[in-house]
Amino acid sequence: MQVLKERHTSREFSSQKLPPQVLSNLLWAAFGVNRPDSGMRTAPSAMNWQEIDIYVATQDGLYVYDAKANALNLVLAQDVRGATGQQPFVKEAPVNLVYVADLARTRRAGGEDQTLYTAADTGFIAQNVYLFCASEGLAAVVRGSVDRAALAKLIKLRPDQKIILAQTVGYPKK
Ligand SMILES: Cc1cc2nc3c(=O)[nH]c(=O)nc-3n(C[C@H](O)[C@H](O)[C@H](O)COP(=O)(O)O)c2cc1C
Questions:
Q1: Rounded Cα distance, 159 and 152, in Å
Q2: Nearest-CA neighbor of 172 among 145, 151, 150, 141?
Q3: Which of 21, 100, 127, 150 has the most CB atoms around it within 10 Å of its CB?
């Protein structure tokens, strides 16, 4: 009840970095493995596709979250935070998450279901992030405002990887 009461969107971020353990907890809450025996996750996904990959843009580089290994794998040793959105705070905030659907994992769905389900699956993850942020005193905003074509090119996504949403996280500006 308390975290639901406190969940809200913020658009003013301090540039203070997230400690590694806080980032690790954030990603686990977002879409980590909560049932190790079966590899099931903290957010549901249509037909258990688990098709959403979380890309993590920080000052140090761009990473992709490997939930099974609970690790971040380097994608680009480059600060791409500014390319994850069109609002000025994206460059300042320490973390921008980019939710990317891997359509190669959505085989049994047709066009409309693929679009609806990948968007719905992303929504559950983004809400987990909002609730984690509410519990930790972190600021967050989920964002549809992303130049998807430019970002996909920059981070070298395959044609069957689709950017759904982004989400900025950081400490609130004092
Ligand atoms: C799918 C989706 C896309 C959104 N895109 C943006 C965005 O691009 N930029 C932004 O500042 N806020 C964005 N928002 C945040 C909404 O503006 C915000 O959730 C809404 O105003 C309600 O405020 P609340 O989250 O504090 O309840 C988006 C929210 C959703 C669900």
A1: 9
A2: 141
A3: 100
